[in-house]
Design brief:
This protein is 65% helix and 0% strand. With 110 residues, the chain is mainly α. The protein has a domain at 27-64.
Length: 110
C-alpha cells in the first residue's frame, strides 16, 4: 500500500513539473536545421530501401542458381520493379530555401 502511494505521489509531482515547462522557441536557423535533419532521415530511408532491394535481388538470383544446379523445379520469378537508386543527398542552399517560401506566399488583401 505504501509503495502504491509513493508511486502515485511521484507520478503527480512529475506531471506537475512537466506541465510547467514552456514550449521550445525555435529561431530560423534551428528550424532550417530541423528541416535538413528531417530531409536527411527521409533520404536515409530511401537509401536503406534501395540496399534492401539489391540484397533481395542477389538472394533471389542465388536461390534460382542453386535450385537449378540441384535439379529442383522452380516457378519463374514474379515481375518486380527495378531498384531505384536515390542518389546522393543534396540539400539546397539556405538562401535559396528562404527565398522560395517568400515568393510562394500570396499577397494579403487590405
Amino acid at each position: 500500500m505504501k509503495q502504491l502511494l509513493v508511486m502515485m505521489g511521484l507520478a503527480l509531482v512529475s506531471a506537475t513539473a512537466l506541465a510547467k515547462l514552456p514550449a521550445p522557441v525555435l529561431d530560423d536557423a534551428a528550424k532550417a536545421k530541423a528541416e535538413e535533419a528531417k530531409a536527411k532521415t527521409a533520404h536515409a530511408g530511401k537509401v536503406d530501401a534501395y540496399k534492401l532491394c539489391l540484397s533481395m535481388d542477389r538472394s533471389a538470383a542465388h536461390y534460382f542458381k542453386t535450385a537449378a544446379a540441384s535439379g529442383k523445379t522452380v516457378k519463374p520469378a514474379q515481375a518486380a520493379p527495378a531498384c531505384a537508386d536515390p542518389g546522393p543527398f543534396v540539400w539546397p542552399a539556405p538562401a535559396a530555401a528562404a527565398a522560395s517560401p517568400a515568393a510562394a506566399a500570396p499577397a494579403k488583401k487590405s
